[in-house]
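W.,

You were right to be curious about this one. When I first looked at the sequence I had no strong expectations either way, so I just let the prediction run and decided to look at it fresh. Below is the sequence, 106 residues in total, followed by the output.
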Amino acid sequence: MALKSSSSLSSALVVMNASVKNNVATSIVYIHVHNKLIIKTLYHALNVTSTEAELFAIRSGINQATNLNDILKIIIVTDSIHMVRKIFDLLSYLFQKHLAIILNEL
């Protein structure tokens, strides 16, 4: 799906990763449209958990992709499927705030 959409002008491919080392979180987001890198962002934060870093990367990628003109589809590529499941679990109170922000952006 990612390869097929990468040739479309109306699809944004958002690739992200986040990690925490020595109490410093690093998240990086790449946004590609039509096989071209459009946006690359790198963030550093102190005293956050890996969960918070992943949430930030996901929210940041979606936020940036929704600001692009003529984008009809956003495809997220992440290595943290466990975090995505937690975000969209409606029974998990801890992540409902993040879900509301993500859905508002979409």
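Here's what jumped out at me. The chain has a mean pLDDT of 80. And, maybe more interesting for your project: Residues 2-105 form a domain with the Nucleotidyltransferase; domain 5 fold (CATH 3.30.420.10).

Coffee later to discuss?

I.
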